[in-house]
Design goal:
Blueprint: H1 2-6, H2 11-37, H3 39-50, H4 54-82, H5 84-104, H6 108-125, H7 128-136, H8 139-171, H9 173-194, H10 198-207
Length: 208
């Protein structure tokens, strides 16, 4: 915060920076949806690869929202310990690591564990989306901005249905998942640099 102030950022910069915040949050939402839905198009391939049943294959997808829900409940406690920014960035980072690990999995158990890791990361990030936006945008803007962010889930889900089948055919399921994880990791890296502490956001909001 002191560093930002020392650079003498003007009011115009502060008003515009909220759109950078929104970009990071929206990109995280799309990335989360891609990782969530990545299993769907490649389930037949994974069933053949790991010699698993439909029930076991379905668990790779269904376990994500279950774990996300649990960690979403406790994320408020975690925020109180490490702060909003760190919780959000950590969530994106863990989510991407889990996706990369799923691409490196050699067994069904390893794949399942990696999906749990991704879900834990999503559980940390997802509840923070609205909180981050509230710090930067006016009350009159929140409905529109939050709607845009939630649409990221639909956009990400649609993208993965288009990209994943072609990618699996060309590169294989492992490289596809690693690619999704690396893409998410890039967004996570940006979040560590671009997301600002909420107290700066409050100042920015009050000056809008």
């Amino acid at each position: 915060r002191d560093l930002v102030r020392s650079r003498g950022l003007g009011d115009v910069y502060k008003r515009q920076y909220k759109y950078i915040i929104e970009f990071v949050v929206y990109a995280g939402s799309v990335s989360m949806a891609i990782i969530f839905n990545a299993m769907g198009p490649m389930l037949p391939t994974l069933m053949e690869e790991f010699k698993i049943t439909f029930t076991q294959a379905g668990l790779l997808s269904s376990i994500v929202p279950c774990i996300l829900g649990v960690f979403a409940l406790v994320s408020g406690t975690i925020v109180g310990k490490i702060g909003l920014k760190v919780t959000s960035c950590l969530g994106l980072t863990v989510m991407s690591i889990g996706c990369i690990l799923s691409g490196l999995a050699d067994t069904y158990t390893e794949m399942l564990i990696s999906r749990v890791v991704s879900a834990i990361g999503a559980g940390l990030f997802f509840p923070m989306m609205g909180a981050i936006i509230m710090q930067w945008f006016k009350d009159s803007e929140l409905v529109v901005v939050n709607s845009i962010n939630f649409s990221g889930s639909a956009v990400g889900g649609a993208l993965v249905l288009v990209i994943a089948p072609a990618s699996v055919a060309a590169l294989g399921w492992s490289n596809t998942l690693i690619g999704f994880g690396v893409g998410s990791g890039l967004i996570a890296s940006l979040s560590w640099f671009l997301l600002k502490e909420p107290n700066l956001g409050v100042e920015s909001k009050n000056q809008n």
